[in-house]
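Data availability (excerpt). All sequences and predicted token strings are deposited with the supplementary files. A representative entry, S1 RNA-binding domain-containing protein, is shown inline so that the format can be inspected without opening the archive.
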Amino acid sequence: MQLEPGAVVEGRITRVTDFGAFIQFDNGETGLVHISQIAHSFVRNIHDHVREGESIEVKVLGRDERGRLDLSIKELLEEPEEVPRPRAIGRQSPQFEAKLRSFMRDAKERTTSGAPVKKSTSTKRKK
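Structure token line:
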């Protein structure tokens, strides 16, 4: 079995971590599919894509400076026309923004005016 860059080989997933999946081949060598090489879309949870013990085809990207195999599943998948991106958080409503500005302005005036801040007291008495 040749494990040269560009080779497509089948291996078994021996361990899945938050950062990738370790693949073992018939010749005993092990390589890593980094989480960024799992799919074309953003991978939030790697366990949604691969399972330990599963056989899978991977493409050998090369070896790092320590001689470890860098692998990819993404390279064997058809690339979608447009890569979906994570949703952006929308802006707050204009009413909320106005209320927040007013609150911040009032809070700043209270703290910079030098007037003592009234403390809340309880009307209940201890018996």
